[in-house]
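Usage

Read records sequentially. Each one opens with the input sequence:
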Amino acid sequence: MGIKSLLPGSLGFGTAPLGNMFRSIPDEEATATVEAAWDQGIRYFDTAPFYGAGLSELRLGEVLADRPRDEYVLSTKVGRVILDELEDPADRDLGEKGGLFEHGRANKMVDLYTADATLRSIEDSLKRLQTDRLDIVWVHDVAQDFHGDDWLAVYETARTGAFRVLQNLRDEGVIKAWGLGVNRVEPIELTLDLDEPKPDAFLLAGRYTLLDHNRSLQRLLPAATAQDVDMVVGGPYSSGILAGGQHFEYQKAPADVVAKVERIKALAAGHGVSIKAAALQFALAHPATAAVVPGATRPSRIAEDVAALKENVPAAFWTALRDEQLIAADAPTPTA
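and closes with the structure output:
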């Protein structure tokens, strides 16, 4: 189990922003960003039908179609089927993430975690991505933030449907790995407790960052490490607030979060550290982390991410974060 041997490096490219998250992005800008990721040596790309109702997959597929398929790793997600029927994207019920892709395509999205829907979703993704195979498939957003009090019932449908389909596809060699792609720790903890099916890894967005990691350190990451299940960290910049943006948890950041970020930035500046380097290197320091997949919509951001991984971050900076109680005392850091 695990996917560290499968991934080509510790930095991937998360393509949620290419689905017109927060704003309408010109096709040319989206294309240039994917090309920049390729030119910078990134060879792991993560996407999902949910990102703009298939828009992210379409844009990513247009660029990768011209690249040798054996040279990159591709992951997408199941749990939502995109229909030909149209709707107003601004009126979608996205739980806590309302309006997230209101600038995406108008195709209707339906939450479906059954076995048949999983197979249909994969087939549709293959077409949009212009490829003949997927490497990793995540079961998407089977958690409280999208399904509220019904999330456990939705999870059970996925357990008996999507989970089993993906495990069979992995065992048959159709895909190389599977797991959950979520923004909450509880569904992952629940899955780690299952006797079967057994996933290879998880994509956890926003829950192992400089701003939010205490809950993950308590049970989730120790259990994942004990079971040799890898974690891909999505949203390492906490929806952008750690990279100069204004969003946290995909909404406008509240005052207390902004204040905490300012404290981290001040310490970083005092030690000559970029905030991006602090964010990426912190997430990668945990032994369970296989990769980070920050998103971007501008080519220049990709070069910043690559440089952030190579930046020298002094041990004194991490010590200062601990002393100021800005990171947990037991959180692994690159020099500890």
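Summary fields computed downstream for this record:
- The longest strand covers residues 80-86.
- The longest helix spans residues 255-270.
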